[in-house]
Amino acid sequence: MAIREIIEDETFLRKKSRDVVVFDKRLHTLLDDMAHTLRDVNGVGIAAPQVGVLRRVVLINETGEPEDLLELINPVVIEASEEIQDDAEGCLSFPGEYGMVERPMHVKVRAQNRSGDLIILEGEGLKARAFCHEIDHLNGELFIEKASRMLDPEEFEERKKNRK
Ligand code: CO
User: Fold this and answer.
1) What is the distance in angstroms between the CA of the first residue and the CA of the last residue of the chain?
2) CA 141 to ligand 1 center in whole angstroms
3) How far apart, in whole angstroms, are the C-alpha atoms of residue 128 and residue 145?
4) Half-sphere CA count of 136, side-chain side, radius 13 A
5) pTM strictly above 0.85
6) DSSP E strands: which ranges in the chain?
7) Separation of 58 CA from ligand 1 center, angstroms?
8) Catalytic-labelled residue, pool 82, 134, 145, 157
9) Per-residue pLDDT tens for 16-72?
10) If 0-12 CB within 10 Å is exposed, 13-18 middle and 19+ buried, where does residue 41 land?
């Protein structure tokens, strides 16, 4: 496993990723490296384009615990609640930048696991937000456009504190 460099180049991040069609060793190495990279920066989620690979691969780890790591290949949101959450959001590719972004409170996602088997996942709150944010990355969409306003780091820390 290796830690990969996190891409901050917006021009690259705006490119659209392609479906994964081959579930081979190379994919597994990518997944393992992304997991290592995500853990290294203590992040909630990471998408393959953020490590320079334009493939539809996403990792989510809402709690930071290794057993809670989710691997999603070719993920699609198949259900989203009408109920909305409006909260602070950040991105590993935009260190120190946070914005208020509206997301569905609850989403259901269809994806494949590392073997290519179909999986259905559900997320609420922060997990739903992470699903939406990371899947956006695969379409070249960035949170900075979706934010109703940006927050300064102090305001973000304050919000984080109050959430607990
Ligand atoms: Co991001």
Assistant:
1) 33
2) 9
3) 19
4) 16
5) yes
6) 45-47, 57-60, 70-80, 84-90, 98-104, 106-112, 118-124, 149-151
7) 10
8) 134
9) 999 999 999 999 999 999 999 999 999 999 999 999 999 999 999 999 999 999 999
10) exposed
